[in-house]
Amino acid sequence: MVTRSFSKPARVLLALSGAGALMLTACAQNTEDGGAPAAGETTAVEVGTVDDIAATLPQKNVDSGTLVVGVNVPYSPNEFKDSSGKIVGFDVDLMDAVAGVLGVTAQYEEADFDRIIPSIQAGTYDVGMSSFTDTKEREATVDFTTYFNAGTQWAQQAGGSVDPTDACGLKVAVQTTTIQDQEEVPAKSEACVAAGKPAIEIVKFDSQDDAANALVLGRVDAMSADSPVTAYAIKQSGDKLEPAGDVFDSAPYGYPVAKGSPLAATLQQAVQYLIDNGQYQTIAENWGVEAGVIDTSQINGAVS
């Protein structure tokens, strides 16, 4: 049996120091261990190979001993780089645990977010791991194994009065190619125009950290992102940012794999094993994201 230990820093409100963490100077930094947690703030997770699940792994992965994982960083606290340049985060710990169940090593390859799914289709990557929302539209081209639930959360400068349901005429920052960029904010903007109000000015950034910094600096009126990401950005800003409205539109995160690939079922079994034995919960608590944990991993579990 192969046994691996995973332990990462925890903070009550996603207050991990991460790649692009928002410093009080309102500058994003890619060095990350300032304010590293004291020992004892995490619970180690020991993951060993589960032979009957590992036996379902495609032969090419058995032969290589790896899962090639396409990832886009930074998207703290889910995936980002520490001060040594290593990719870390909740998603990383969970994928490492999944790989441990399968008796292989997760090999992370960085890519632009919008290139990950095409690269999976082309066979360059086995799986994607970059906080992908499982949607009906994406399921037309790839299959998903779900592992988490996240909603959308807006942020504003402290003391602001932004209403996400009536943001007509405001500047709203998003990370390009995310659900917020492609669906959520455009739909709100179209509703504004249909009501005879000014459109929302959607300000796109390649990095979520850049979007958050634009808000801290007052270059936009609000930011829209996945709920754990917004919570992290708010905490890292000190007292500069605060939530704007409640979390809404909860939907599953999933690992995209090639359409029809047996890897989807293998990953589902591995995730469910970690859920059932409590290791999944521990990993989530280590990163402070337990609000989004699920009870059952599904294949193609999109809600819209």
UniProtKB/TrEMBL annotation:
Q: Which Pfam families is this protein grouped with?
A: SBP_bac_3
Please state what the protein is called. Answer: Polar amino acid transport system substrate-binding protein
Q: Name the keywords, alphabetized.
A: Signal
Has UniProt tagged this entry with the keyword Signal?
Answer: yes
Recorded hits in InterPro entries, A to Z, give: Solute-binding_3/MltF_N
Q: Which organism is it from?
A: Rhodococcoides kyotonense
Which positions fall inside the Solute-binding protein family 3/N-terminal domain? 66-291
* Lineage top rank: taxon: Bacteria
The residues forming the signal peptide are 1-28
